[in-house]
TrEMBL record:
Keywords, alphabetical: Transferase
Organism of provenance: Hallella faecis
Family: Belongs to the citrate synthase family.
UniProt xrefs under Pfam families: Citrate_synt
Protein name, UniProt field: Citrate synthase
Pathways involved: Carbohydrate metabolism; tricarboxylic acid cycle; isocitrate from oxaloacetate: step 1/2
Transferase among keywords: yes
NCBIfam families: PRK14032.1
Keyword Transcription: no
Catalytic activity: oxaloacetate + acetyl-CoA + H2O = citrate + CoA + H(+)
Superkingdom of the organism of origin: Bacteria
Length: 448
């Protein structure tokens, strides 16, 4: 039998072996996608870290959509972001301190923490050489491989004591930007034939500034760096239930090592329904800019959005990327904040016409998805809707949009890993699957 045919045959058989009728989920009371009937998530854990609020409940328990709110360690995200915007101050390191420890640092603690992160940004020579050697064009994949390799160079990789977990967490938060910047520079050199620059992080600079420096040398402004800093803050944490953080919690519950668990989280975030949506949104926007001739014509926009929903255009997935969320209903507070920031930056960079078009796509995208799926649950733009447009205006390449998300979310992942391994009453996460296949009698090989 030809090998290609065998693969086709095996795959064809999957059409039957994968059949699970949708109604069976209701019949057996299975929570499809770990979701209740009303779309809310099944409660699977308790946490002191992030709190994601997208709805309230009436007295009879009915889900009541509400404006989205996000809390980091009890503080509302907007209350953390507004002073930074007002004081024109960098804050990612401060938020990382808060998320890891539960406390906002005082000035002395913050200065020491910043220095600690800065000291740890440099990669050891072997890791740099290994990144140069790693082939591949996907930076998320290279990031995951580099993280797994950090296990080899860690003198104490399997120790899950609190002190060791904190040391590893700080090293990962500090090294992610350097790994991503080096991996991108090497990709640009080998795939696009550009000169190769390996710039080491500078002392006394924040993570956002150093990241831009490693990627773009001096070709960035103070405003660009502060925008990136805010994007890092806004993406740093989202409770225990988002797919990548839950992946980190599930793997951590087996007491595996930090690097295995974080590599799994990276794999989850890469998916286009999760962190990978930021590239999909930007590419979808480029596509719409090309195919819609009048950027102000609502009928033309709606017609095209319905073509997306009907799987006739763009990637034919039937999705309008950047719209919809598992928890948020009326608004995602991060998208609200990013929409405002994108507007200010667009004015600065002379891209207001595109910004106005993107806003119309949001407005009409929400309407079309709501009408198309005939659900009463409201949908809204999510975090990924405006983030890519901001990166583009800062002059960052799309290959690193999802890696930048990982560079922020590593803070939430490590905070949740530490919590998963330290709360009283912890237990390996192990849900159940109901098997719905009838038993079969074994047939000897010679009789098949
Ligand atoms: C950082 C982040 O991860 S934010 C999310 C980034 N992802 C995206 O932007 C991708 C586009 N959006 C989506 O695919 C979804 O809204 C998700 C994955 C974010 C949430 O999914 P769910 O929690 O299942 O959404 P919800 O319960 O509100 O809606 C489910 C139904 O509406 C559909 N739907 C939801 N959002 C969209 C959308 N943007 N475009 C088309 N259909 C959609 C789903 O496909 C699903 O249909 P089905 O029941 O026929 O399978
Ligand atoms: O919570 C989710 O499902 C996805 C999300 O917005 C995030 O991880 O930031």
């Amino acid at each position: 039998m030809k090998k290609e045919y065998l693969i086709y045959k095996l795959s064809d058989e999957v059409k039957n072996s994968c059949k699970i009728p949708r109604e069976a989920f209701g019949e057996y009371g299975v929570k499809r996608g770990l979701r209740n009937e009303d779309g809310s998530g099944v409660l699977v854990g308790l946490t002191n870290i992030g709190n994601v609020i997208g709805y309230e409940r009436d007295d009879d328990g009915t889900l009541k959509p509400s404006a989205g709110k996000l809390y980091y360690r009890g503080y509302e995200l907007n209350d953390l972001v507004e002073p930074l915007l007002h004081e024109k101050r960098f804050g990612f390191e401060e938020i990382a301190y808060l998320l890891l420890s539960g406390q906002l640092p005082d000035e002395e603690e913050l200065a020491a923490f910043r220095e600690l992160l800065n000291d740890n940004m440099l990669l050891d020579h072997r890791t740099t050489v290994n990144i140069i050697d790693l082939e591949g064009s996907n930076i998320m994949n290279i990031l995951a491989r580099s993280v797994l390799e950090m296990y080899t160079y860690d003198p104490n990789p399997d120790d899950i004591s609190r002190d060791n977990l904190m040391r590893q967490s700080i090293e990962l938060i500090a090294k992610f930007p350097t790994i991503i910047a080096y991996a991108y520079n090497i990709y640009r050199h080998s795939v696009q034939g550009r000169s190769l620059h390996i710039r080491h992080p500078l002392e006394g600079k924040t993570i956002a500034e150093n990241f831009l420096y490693m990627i773009k040398h001096e070709d960035y402004t103070e405003l660009d760096a502060r925008m990136l800093d805010l994007l890092l803050i806004i993406q740093a944490e989202h409770g225990g239930g988002n797919n990548s953080t839950f992946t980190v919690r599930v793997t951590s519950s087996t007491r595996t090592d930090t690097y295995s668990s974080i590599a799994a989280g990276i794999g989850s975030l890469k998916g286009p329904l999760h962190g990978g949506a930021n590239i999909k949104v930007v590419n979808m926007f480029h596509h719409l800019k090309e195919y819609i001739s009048d950027w102000k014509n609502i009928d033309e926009i709606d017609t095209y959005l319905y073509r997306l929903l009907n799987k006739e255009a763009y990637d034919k997935s039937g999705l309008i990327y950047g719209i919809g969320h598992a928890v948020y209903t009326m608004s995602d507070p991060r998208a609200v904040q990013l929409k405002k920031l994108a507007g200010e930056l667009a004015k600065e960079k002379g891209r207001e016409e595109e910004y106005e078009f993107l806003k119309l796509i949001e407005q009409e995208g929400v309407k079309c998805v709501t009408a198309f799926r005939k659900s009463t649950k409201p949908v809204c733009a999510n975090l990924d809707f405006y983030s890519g447009f901001i990166y583009e205006m800062i002059g960052l390449p799309e290959e690193i949009y999802t890696p930048i998300f990982a560079m922020a979310r590593i803070v939430g992942w490590t905070a949740h890993r530490i919590e998963e391994l330290n709360f009283e009453g912890r237990r390996i996460i192990r849900p159940a699957y109901k098997n719905i296949l009838s038993p079969k009698a074994y047939v000897p090989l010679s009789e098949r």
